[in-house]
Specification:
10 helices; about 0% strand; Four Helix Bundle (Hemerythrin (Met), subunit A); about 70% helix; mainly alpha
Length: about 200
């Protein structure tokens, strides 16, 4: 129990510090790296809660795809972040007010949350078994909801194919790389040999 409490406070502390550094770091690349660190610590908290599937999805999807995509976009685009920060101080009071309202709402919700007597009777208590969360989710997903799951996969597949088709469509005035023409090009097509007399120049 002491080890679990220590792990919780460790993950939670690093998560809070990394979240603070995401919004306070001056370098946007450092902000994305702190965001990745926050995702890993949030995954650790989910593992402590016994939700290993959510932790795995958090690492695979958010760290492996979203955060890395943010990092590549920030590093590859030539954006002058100094100009973007100009005039940003005027929005700080408004942001503090909005954040205070949200914090007050969260505190009010958790302070005054009371279950009705009839609500506790409708809660389905989990049955103790040796089936892990990922296995139980897979059994439900591929048996009761196999058709919606396959339809969602088909929609994502069509969207991916449509994005590839739109990217590779032929448009006039757009310079594209033609691998076949590059390999079939001869030296005589691009080179011109001239005989230059000594001491005269080209």
């Amino acid at each position: 129990m002491i080890i679990q409490a220590f792990a919780f406070y460790l993950f939670a502390g690093i998560l809070l510090v990394s979240a603070l550094m995401v919004i306070t770091a001056r370098n946007p690349v450092h902000s994305v790296l702190f965001l990745v660190l926050g995702f890993f610590n949030a995954a650790g908290l989910f593992i402590l809660l016994g939700a290993e599937f959510i932790a795995m999805i958090l690492v695979i999807v958010y760290v492996g795809a979203v955060a890395v995509l943010f990092l590549f976009v920030v590093m590859m685009l030539d954006i002058n972040f100094t100009d973007l920060r100009k005039g940003g101080m005027q929005y700080i009071p408004f942001g503090i007010i909005i954040g205070g309202i949200l914090l007050f709402e969260l505190i009010a919700i958790y302070s005054y949350w009371i279950f009705a007597d009839s609500a506790l009777q409708n809660i389905a208590l989990p049955i103790a078994s040796d089936v892990q969360n990922s296995e139980a989710l897979g059994l439900v997903l591929y048996t009761d909801y196999v058709l919606p799951f396959q339809i969602a996969g088909l929609i994502l597949f069509v969207a991916m194919v449509g994005a590839i088709v739109l990217t590779h469509r032929t448009r006039p005035g757009i310079r594209k790389q033609n691998i076949a023409s590059q390999h079939s090009r001869k030296p005589s097509d691009v080179l011109e040999v001239k005989k230059v007399t000594s001491r005269t120049g080209a």
